[in-house]
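$ ./design --mode recover --in tokens.txt
reading tokens...
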């Protein structure tokens, strides 16, 4: 007996209501109540508009706008001339044989998931903007910009071509995993034994209008160019081609900017010569050190995955510190102007010039400019007050202390001395004669 195991399906409230609507047992009052529930639930309190070209998100109620990373914004459509004739069987086989196992570099993040990204031929990308970012956040990433991807499976359907990247997002034998074979209802064994590892691949769909036209391998690669680059590149070239021009030039010139990720720092400077982990206040950070004296030394402070501080120390010069984020504005789509702030510090144990520099203020717990009420008496020494004697235990604190008795007068030689006390005899001892 073959018994298919149906996957668990969760019906939404709308599907349940539609089923109840067509049930003959429901009266008119029940149908009206369901209709009123959906009318109330469909009323949205606010409207959110997403500009898929620029990635700007506008809230209709508050009017606030935000931006997403440029890697998730809408692409620029390609302009590849397409044939009007439909793809025949011979060209289909040649196309699959040419593109199967082809390697390229990801130009955009590829999220996991069964649906994946959909690219219209010479058109837009779906999803884009905030929806694209939400998909990558919820599903996870299969490939980051600059990573190598492999076309592991190609399927040509009526009006689209499906590409599975790095193994695809689905498990093998998806249908057979829900089938069991056995003799009775309680004695069954699944067809597929064991649990394979979770797939980490992605899916890309190239959609056409009406049908798939006659295509060559070069034309398919040109249509996929906004998402996958099939050119021969080094890993550094593939990674920097996905970045803005200013950030790309900084990495190629081995220059580190505040706001870079650790991948950008490694592409720009390579592995550091030494690392140290410290804590400043409540914030832990990692210090990457490049160079050794007497050569220039660069200290790159990293918190999490971002550079938060860069210090350049040159021999005989004042160290320069950069603390302002310069990369966030480049990765946004609103064109925020960037300015570089430097903070020079005094190096070494420099001696103070008494003729030009004032003496350093003594340490204090006061805030700058704070004055206390008794500042007028500062510096005036008051008379010393000794503590009062404490009363003896058991004495009345309200009474005056009693006078001490006078010492006895000294003994005079003319006066007879007082008799000495005699010791009592010990019992059982010898009596004196």
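writing sequence...
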């Amino acid at each position: 007996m073959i018994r298919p195991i149906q996957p668990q399906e969760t019906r939404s409230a709308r599907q349940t209501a539609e089923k109840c609507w067509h049930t003959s047992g429901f009266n008119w009052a029940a149908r009206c109540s369901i209709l009123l529930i959906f009318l109330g639930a469909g009323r949205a309190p606010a409207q959110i508009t997403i500009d898929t070209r620029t990635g700007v998100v506008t809230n209709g109620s508050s009017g606030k706008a935000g931006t997403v990373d440029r890697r998730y914004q809408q692409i620029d459509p390609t302009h590849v001339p397409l044939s009007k004739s439909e793809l025949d069987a011979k060209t289909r086989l040649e196309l699959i044989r040419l593109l199967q196992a082809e390697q390229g570099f990801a130009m955009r993040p590829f999220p996991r998931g069964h649906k994946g990204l959909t690219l219209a031929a010479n058109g837009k990308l779906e999803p884009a903007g905030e929806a694209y970012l939400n998909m990558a956040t919820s599903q996870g990433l299969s490939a980051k910009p600059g990573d190598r991807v492999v076309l592991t499976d190609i399927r040509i359907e009526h009006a689209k071509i499906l590409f599975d990247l790095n193994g695809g997002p689905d498990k093998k034998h998806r249908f057979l995993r829900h089938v069991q074979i056995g003799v009775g209802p309680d004695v069954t064994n699944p067809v597929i034994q064991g649990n394979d590892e979770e797939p980490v691949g992605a899916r890309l769909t190239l959609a056409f209008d009406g049908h798939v036209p006659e295509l060559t391998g070069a034309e398919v690669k040109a249509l996929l160019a906004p998402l996958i680059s099939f050119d021969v590149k080094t890993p550094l070239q593939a990674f920097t081609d996905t970045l803005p021009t200013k950030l790309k030039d900084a990495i190629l010139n081995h220059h580190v900017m505040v706001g870079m990720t650790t991948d950008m720092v490694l592409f720009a400077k390579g592995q550091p010569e030494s690392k140290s982990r410290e804590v400043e206040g409540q914030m832990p950070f990692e210090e990457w050190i490049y160079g050794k004296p007497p050569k220039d030394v660069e200290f790159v402070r990293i918190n999490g995955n971002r550079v938060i501080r860069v210090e350049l120390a040159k021999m005989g010069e004042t160290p320069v510190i950069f603390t302002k984020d310069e990369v966030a504005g480049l990765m946004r789509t609103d064109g925020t102007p960037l300015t570089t702030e430097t903070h020079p510090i005094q190096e070494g144990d420099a001696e103070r010039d008494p003729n030009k520099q004032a003496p350093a203020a003594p340490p204090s717990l006061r805030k700058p400019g704070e004055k206390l009420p008794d500042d007028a008496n500062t510096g005036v020494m008051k008379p010393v007050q000794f503590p009062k004697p404490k009363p003896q235990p058991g004495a009345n604190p309200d009474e005056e202390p009693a006078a001490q008795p006078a010492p006895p007068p000294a003994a005079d030689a003319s006066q007879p001395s007082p008799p000495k006390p005699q010791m009592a005899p010990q019992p059982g001892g010898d009596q004196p004669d």
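exit 0
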